[in-house]
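Chain A, query sequence.
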Amino acid sequence: HIQKIPEHRKGEPIMARKYVYGMRSKGFAEGNQPAEGLLEAETDPLDVALAKIAELNDKYLRKVAEFDNFRKRTDKEKDQMFSMGEKSVLEKLLPIIDNFERGFDTVQDEDEEDAFVQGMRKIYAQLIKQMEDIGVKPIEAVGKEFDPNLHNAVMQVESDEYPSGTVAQELQKGYMFHDAVLRHSMVSVVS
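Chain A, predicted structure.
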C-alpha cells in the first residue's frame, strides 16, 4: 500500500525504508546479536521507486522555476533595452523641435498667412502630437517653483513679477517621457 507523505515532509526526498527481519521491537535477539538466519536488510522496491519519482519531480520543479526566472529576467532586460532605445531616439528629436520653435519666433506677423509658414506649423503640430502620443510631454517651467529634478538653472535674475526661487524664464524647453525626465528645462531663476 502507498503511504501519504505528511505535509511538513513534502519536498524532502523519500528515503528507501529498509526492513530487517527477525528483529524484536527493542532490538535484536538476546545479546544484541542478530538471530540465526536473519537477513541483513531488504529494500522495498516500491519505496525505491517512490524515492526516485520524488527525486525526479524535485529536479523537474527546480528546472521549471529556473526557466521561469530566466524568462522573467530576459523579458525585463528586453524591456529596458527597448526603453533605452526609445529614449535615445526621442532625445535626438528634441533639437528638431527646438529648431522649429526658434524658426517660428522669427516669423513676422505679416508672414503668418504664408503657405510655407502654414505648412511648417502643420508639420510641427503633427510632430508634437506624435510625441505626446508616445508619452513625451513638455515640462511646465515659467512661474513654477524651481525644482532641481525638473529644471537646470543657468542664471539668476531679479524680478518684480515672481517671488524668489521661482522660474522666471525658460531658455530651453524640458520634456518628460512617461514619468522620467527626458531633458531638464534650462531656466533662469529669481534670486
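The helical segments are 45-105, 115-134. The first strand starts at residue 18 and ends at 19.
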